[in-house]
Amino acid sequence: MPLGWLRSGRFQQPRLSYRDPEVRRIIDRTAMLLLTGWRFRDDVSLAEHGGLVRRIFTPRSRHQLHIDRCTGALRRSCASVVGVHIRRTDYATFQEGRFWYEDAVYRRWMELLQASLPQPVGFLLSSDMPIDQQAFEGLTVQQAPGHELQDLY
User: Fold this and answer.
1) Which tens digits make up the pLDDT trace of 34-82?
2) N or C: which end of the chain has fewer CB within 10 A?
3) Which residues, at least 6 apart from 5, have a Cβ–Cβ distance to it below 8 Å?
């Protein structure tokens, strides 16, 4: 069987399910399938296998300890916690800096989110560069641990 490549952009639907007949035909014709895009969803399978998915993505205890130390106070004191990744190093040059933003832009987005979520709102900031905490003064912020896995949780 050949290698398959499924690009979500080639379909008109806003979301793609692996149960969609056209998607199933492509899957069934390949030995290995590469997926490109972010619109793939299978809510039925996720509901059915949610426990397994959570177990697979639960960090090992040594990482969970660091995560809990970092995020515990935010989670206890805030009704909503939002993770914000301020990506700097590669975004400075990727597509001529198209996705590189000043701290003021992140702050404006954070303020908009804060106004729309249950209060109080805390923000967990992570970055591939040092973060200027003063740029976020007045917002409830906590810096993420600074570890590639732990920053995801």
Assistant:
1) 878 777 777 888 899 999 999 999 999 999 999 998 899 999 999 999 9
2) N
3) 33, 34, 36
The strand pair at 80-86 and 3-7 is best described as unpaired
Local structure of 22: helix, strand or coil: helix
CA dist 94 and 47 (Å) reads 37
- Tokens 């001529």 sit on residue: 96
pLDDT of residue 12: 67
Tokens 């035909």 correspond to 25
Residues 6+ apart with CB under 8 A from 2: 29, 30, 31
User: 120: cis peptide before it, omega within 30°?
Assistant: yes
Tell me the C-alpha distance between 48 and 132, whole Å: 43
List the end-to-end C-alpha distance of the chain, in Å, as a whole number: 38
Residue in this structure with the two tokens 């970092």, named with its chain if needed: 70
Asked if residues 136 and 123 have their Cβ atoms less than 8 Å apart, the reply is yes
Mean pLDDT of 128-140: 95
Q: What are phi and psi of 142, to 5 degrees?
A: -140, 135
Token pair in block for residue 105: 């832009």
